[in-house]
C-alpha cells in the first residue's frame, strides 16, 4: 500500500514541476542576462538548501558550517582553474580536491563532535566556519584574500563559443536566443543541480531516509531498535558536505569569480537558513520553493518596490515607505509573516492541507 | 542457565544512585513481571539492560554473554527489543515505516506480518497512516508489533496498560500471552491484576533493590505480602 498524497502535497508537486519547467527553459523564456543569473543562482541554492535540509530537516543536526563546505568546493575549482588554466581537467581536479577536503573535515568534525549535545555541535561548526573564513582571507597567495580570484571557465562556456552554426557559419538561434557558450554554461549548472538534487531526493525516500527521520524524532528510540546514531549522523553530515562542495564548484565555474562574499560568508549561511525555514524543513520540495522565493526577493524586491513607489507618487507616506532602499526591511516583514502564517514553512504547511487524521 | 541475569547492578542517574546492587534472574520463556511502587527503579532496570543508562557497577548477562558495556544498538541486535513506557513510536512515520525500521533487511517476513495483523488488526487498517494520528491503544499495538517484527529472545515492556481503555488492555493481554509462547517477556507493570493474569515469575523492587522474587502464583496467593510490598489493599 503506497502512502497517499494529500491535496496539498499534489499542489506542491505541481508547483515544483512548474518551477523545474521554468528553470529548464529559462534561457528561452527570460531573455536577459540578469534573469539567467537569477535562474542559475536558484539552481545552485536549491541544491545547497536541500543538502542543508538533509541535516537540519531530516536528521535534526544544526550546523553553521555548510557554507564552509560550499566554499571548499568553490575555492577548489577556482584555484585549479587559476593555476592550471581553463580546462576540464582543472574543473574536475578542483572539484575533487574541494570534495576531498570537505569529506575529511566533515568526518573529523562529525566523529569528534556529533556525540555531544546539539548546541555544542552547532558552536563547533560555527568555529570551524569562522576559521575557514579567516584562512580564505589570510592565504591570499592561493585564495586572493578579500579580493577573491577571477579566472576563465572552460572554452565551451565562453560567450563567443558557437554551439550550433548554420551554413554561413553563424551561430544558430532558437526562439531568438543564440546558442552560445552562455547557454552551455547555464545548462551545465542546471544539469549538475538536477543530478545532485535527484541523488538527495532518492536518499530521502530510501530506507535510509526513514532512519534519518527516526533519529530526528528520538535518538534513544532509534538506538533501542538497533541503529548506531553517531554513524548515521556522521554519514549524513559527510554526504551533505559533499553535495554542498560540488554545488560550490559548479557555482565557481558559472561565476568565474570566487571570493569570501560569494562562497564563504555568513550572509550565505543565513540565506540558506531562511530558505529552509521559508520552504519547510524535512521536505526536499521545501528547498525548491524556499530557494526560488528568497532568490527572487533578493533580486526583484527592490525593482518591485521602486515601481510601486513611483505608481503611488501622489499618495502621502506610501512612496517613502516603499522606497527601494528599504527592501531589507520589507523582506524582514515578509519573513515574519511567512513564519506566522506558515509555521511549518510554505511547503510543510500546504502539504498538510487535506490530510486525513 | 537463565536467559537474562543482573548481578549486583548499580545505576546512577546524575548524582543519585537509583539502582543499588540489584540482582535478578529471568528464566527463558513466559512472562517475568517486575513489580514495585512508583520510583522504585523498575524503568531504570529496563533502561540499564538496554544500555540507555550505563550501570556504574555489576554485570548484566544475556544468554550467558556480558552485555552491560555494549552500545544500545548492539544490545538490540543481540535480540532484545524494548517497548518503553511512552510507547516509543515515531510519530512522523507511517505504521509501515515504523515497522520496517525494526526489520533487519528492510523487508517483512510474510508469516510474521500475518501474525501481527492477526494480533493487531487495526495496524493493517491504518498501515499508511502517520503514527501520530493513531489512538493511544493503536500506538501501543504498534510499539509491541515493532518488537515482534523480527525474532527476539527477550522483549522488555514498560507499563503497557498505562492510560489504555479496558477493552484495549484485554486485547493487549491476549497478545502478550500469544507472544510469550515463543518469546520471553520482561514486563514492568503497575496494574497488578493485569500482571497477575500474565506472569509466571516475578520480582518486587523497592528503593533500587530486589526485595522479593518467586512465582506469580505464590505472590498472588499472599495478600499480606502484596499489601506490605505494593500497598495493595487486602
From TrEMBL, chain A:
Record field: transmembrane: 12-30, 42-70, 90-112, 119-139, 184-215, 235-254, 266-297, 328-347
Top-rank taxon: Bacteria
Pfam families per UniProt: BPD_transp_2
Membrane-protein topology: Multi-pass membrane protein
GO cellular component terms given for this protein: plasma membrane
Principal subcellular localization: membrane
MF terms in GO: branched-chain amino acid transmembrane transporter activity
Signal peptide: none
Sorted UniProt keywords: Cell membrane, Membrane, Transmembrane, Transmembrane helix
Compartments reported by the entry: Cell membrane
UniProt-listed InterPro entries: ABC_transp_permease, LivM-like
Name the UniProt record assigns to this protein: Branched-chain amino acid ABC transporter permease
From TrEMBL, chain B:
A GO term, aspect molecular function: ATP binding
A Pfam cross-reference name: ABC_tran
SUPFAM superfamilies in UniProt: P-loop containing nucleoside triphosphate hydrolases
InterPro entries xrefs: AAA+_ATPase, ABC_transporter-like_ATP-bd, ABC_transporter-like_CS, BCAA_Transport_ATP-bd_LivF, P-loop_NTPase
Single GO biological process annotation from the record: L-amino acid transport
Residue ranges of the TM segments: none
SMART domains given in the database record: AAA
Keywords: Amino-acid transport, ATP-binding, Nucleotide-binding, Transport
Chain ranges of the ABC transporter domain: 4-232
Domain of life: Bacteria
Annotated family: Belongs to the ABC transporter superfamily.
Protein name according to UniProt: ABC transporter ATP-binding protein
Annotated source species: Maritimibacter fusiformis
Organism classification: Bacteria, Pseudomonadati, Pseudomonadota, Alphaproteobacteria, Rhodobacterales
